Structure formats: structure tokens, C-alpha cells
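PROTEIN DESIGN WORKSHEET
SECTION A - STRUCTURE
LENGTH: 412
C-ALPHA CELLS:
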């Protein structure tokens, strides 16, 4: 697949609107991340900041599956408009409270609950909308472009947010974030989509059960979601909690940790371009093999490898994660019927993030019990062993690229 062909996906007007809308809102959210942190620390303590972040994440986990059901019941682009408006409203209210000096930690936490709840409905709808906008053969480049945009703006956004926070007030950055959600909603509502005929039982619970059946009838999907859950349980807690400690004690301090993260971010940019160009005949085999560098990265941190080796592994891991993400999303969008994609995507997201809080809760005590290096090695080794196990599953090895779902006829 040529690089030019990948960018040609943007010629489709509806996808172009979605791409720009998502890019703008991603930029705003990335910019608001450091601003929100410093705003909470200004009126509270580090413990308060943890509670605010938890207030945003809990509704995502709790409401994600319900969001998947509604993503399959209503026009997805209109659901995205609603979630953009709700999130923009939450950020605008937070900005107003901060700028007027009336904000409390409780106020900010309650508004983040609203923000997280809207996010739970937006994610599945977004994943289900992409295959409505592009041809099946263009799903991987479409997801690669979205990932590439996300990589760029998650690098630029925090820097600008930190600058605004330094020279002005955090509230201004949150206000800009609210504006980006408004722009995203205006772009998304302009989409002109044909109506799809979806089959509903009339019961949310019954639709939920149908979505569950769509997952469990595909053993390859169950195995991959389980693998992603283990990955979230081990990789991110080990890397983000113990990685800075290793950098501080063994690698030279914050500069070393910044270099590791910068290499991973640079790798994700490169990976976005790679994902525009490459295709795999066995996408699940590729997805699992592309996880291997992440496990190696964590092991290298645990065994006291030199900084250059860890940074190189981080760069390769960034490339592979970007490519693997594009391949995986395209595979789900190809193989799952259009009327069930949002529900299946919600189970995918839920399976991936549900164990994440457990990882963050146990990684510290475990490192105190057996050692920081040993914990990192165990985390990396678990990921490598999991990859080997999943690759041994026949349905994972045997899945071929390309759509095998019948198109849903348009409503009259």
C-alpha cells in the first residue's frame, strides 16, 4: 500500500470532517492535561489530584458497556456531537470556576465525572463510525491517520498547555479545550450519512446481551481482549510507576526519563507513517508480535540496561504500538457486523482498561516486596509469555485480513 494512497482516504468528505474534528479535540484535551493537574495542585494536594483523575476514570469503566449499546442504537455521529457538547460544557464550567477563583477540588472532581461519563459514550461510537465513512480496504490507513494525528497533538498539546499555565492561568487552557470540543461538534454534525437499518429488540439489556454474544462467538476476539487486559495490568503500571524511579536512581534523573518518553513518542509518529504503508495478511499475528518490543522495553529497565538501549527499545516500541493499534482497530471494523461494532468495541475497551487500576494499586507494594528490578522483569516477562500463548491459539493464527461481514443495507 503506497503512502499516497493512505492520505487519499482524506478525500472522503465525511472522514475528513471526522479526522479534523478528532484532531482538534485531541489537541485540546492534550493541552488541558497539564493545566488541570496544576490547577488542582494550586487549590489542593497531590492526593486531591489523584482523586480528580480517579473521578474521571471511574465513569469510563462503569459506563463504557452502556455507551457501546447506545452507539449501536442511535446515529453515531450525532451521539459524538452530544458527547462533545457535554465534555466541552464540563471543561468550560471548570475554566470559569478557576478563572473566577471559585473552584474547589469537589467542583472539579464532579465536573470530571461528567467528562468521563461522556467519554464512555463517545469512544464506542467513534470506533463504530469509522467503517461507515470509508471503504473496507481503507480502514487501516484511516485508523493510521487518526493515530498519527493523535501522536502529533499529544506531543504538541501538553507543551502548549504547560506554557499557558506558566504565563497565564490553567483556566485559560481548559477554556481553549472547551472551545475545541465545540469546534469538533460543529464539524461532526455536518456529516451527511445514509441511514443504516439496525435490528433492535427494544431492550437495552437485550442489546447488551446480543453484543456479548457477538464477542464470545469469536474465540480470536476473546483471546485478544484477554491479552490486552493483561497488557494493561502489567505494562503501563510498571512503566509509568517504576520507570521514573529507575531513571532517578540509575539513569541520571528526570532528563533520562524525559529522553525515554520522547523516544517512544517519536516512535509513535514514525509508526503512524508505517501503518499507512504496510499491510499484514494475518493481522492478529502481527498485532501480537508488535507487542513484543514493549515487553523487552520493561525488561531492559528491570535489568539495569544502559540508557541508550532502553531509549532505543522505547523508540521501537512506539513504532510497533502505533502500527499494532491501526491494524487491530481495522480488524475489528472489518470482521464485526456494522450494527454491533460499537458494542463489541466497548467490550474491547472495557477488557483493556478494567484491570488497569489493579495494576497501579499493586505495582508499588509488589516492588517493595520483591524489588523494583524484579517487578519490572516479571511484568515484561508476563507480556512476552502471553504473546507466545496467544500466538498458539488456532483462531488467532488463522484469521486472514479482509472483510468477511455482509454489508448492512441502507434504509429506504
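SECTION B - SEQUENCE
RESIDUE ASSIGNMENT:
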Amino acid at each position: 500500500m503506497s503512502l499516497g494512497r493512505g492520505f487519499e482516504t482524506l478525500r472522503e468528505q465525511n472522514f475528513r470532517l471526522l479526522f479534523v474534528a478528532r484532531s482538534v479535540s485531541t489537541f485540546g484535551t492534550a493541552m488541558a492535561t497539564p493545566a488541570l493537574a496544576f490547577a488542582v495542585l494550586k487549590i489542593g494536594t497531590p492526593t486531591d489530584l489523584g482523586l480528580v483523575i480517579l473521578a474521571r476514570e471511574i465513569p469510563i469503566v462503569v459506563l463504557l458497556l452502556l455507551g457501546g449499546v447506545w452507539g449501536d442504537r442511535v446515529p453515531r455521529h450525532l451521539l459524538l456531537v452530544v458527547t462533545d457538547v457535554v465534555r466541552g460544557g464540563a471543561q468550560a464550567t471548570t475554566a470559569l470556576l478557576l478563572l473566577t477563583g471559585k473552584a474547589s477540588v469537589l467542583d472539579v472532581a464532579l465536573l470530571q465525572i461528567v467528562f468521563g461519563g461522556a467519554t464512555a459514550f463517545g469512544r464506542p461510537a467513534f470506533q463504530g463510525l469509522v467503517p461507515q465513512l470509508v471503504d473496507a480496504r481503507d480502514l487501516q490507513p484511516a485508523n493510521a491517520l487518526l493515530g498519527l494525528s493523535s501522536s502529533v497533538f499529544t506531543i504538541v498539546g501538553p507543551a502548549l498547555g504547560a506554557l499557558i499555565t506558566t504565563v497565564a492561568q490553567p483556566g485559560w487552557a481548559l477554556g481553549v479545550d472547551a472551545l475545541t470540543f465545540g469546534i469538533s461538534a460543529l464539524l461532526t454534525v455536518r456529516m451527511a450519512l445514509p441511514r443504516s437499518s439496525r435490528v433492535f429488540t427494544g431492550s437495552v439489556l437485550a442489546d447488551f446481551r446480543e453484543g456479548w454474544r457477538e464477542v464470545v462467538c469469536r474465540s480470536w476476539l476473546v483471546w485478544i481482549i484477554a491479552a490486552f487486559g493483561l497488557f494493561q495490568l502489567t505494562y503501563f503500571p510498571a512503566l509509568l510507576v517504576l520507570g521514573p524511579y529507575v531513571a532517578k536512581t540509575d539513569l541520571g534523573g528526570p532528563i533520562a526519563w524525559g529522553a525515554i518518553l520522547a523516544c517512544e513518542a517519536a516512535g509513535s509518529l514514525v509508526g503512524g507513517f508505517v501503518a499507512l504503508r504496510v499491510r499484514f495478511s494475518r493481522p492478529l499475528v502481527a498485532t501480537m508480535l508488535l507487542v513484543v518490543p514493549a515487553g523487552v522495553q520493561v525488561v531492559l529497565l528491570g535489568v539495569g540496561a544502559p540508557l541508550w538501549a532502553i531509549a532505543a527499545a522505547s523508540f521501537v516500541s512506539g513504532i510497533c504500538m502505533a502500527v499494532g493499534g491501526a491494524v487491530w482497530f481495522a480488524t475489528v471494523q472489518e470482521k464485526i457486523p456494522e450494527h454491533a461494532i460499537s458494542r463489541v468495541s466497548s467490550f474491547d475497551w472495557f477488557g483493556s482498561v478494567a484491570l488497569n487500576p489493579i495494576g497501579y494499586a499493586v505495582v508499588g507494594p509488589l516492588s517493595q516486596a520483591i524489588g523494583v528490578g524484579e517487578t519490572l522483569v516479571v511484568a515484561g516477562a508476563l507480556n512476552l509469555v502471553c504473546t507466545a500463548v496467544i500466538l498458539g491459539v488456532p483462531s488467532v493464527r488463522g484469521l486472514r485480513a479482509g472483510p468477511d461481514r455482509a454489508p448492512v443495507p441502507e434504509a429506504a
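SECTION C - NOTES
The chain has two domains: 1-138+153-192, 204-401.
The two ends are 36 Å apart (CA to CA).
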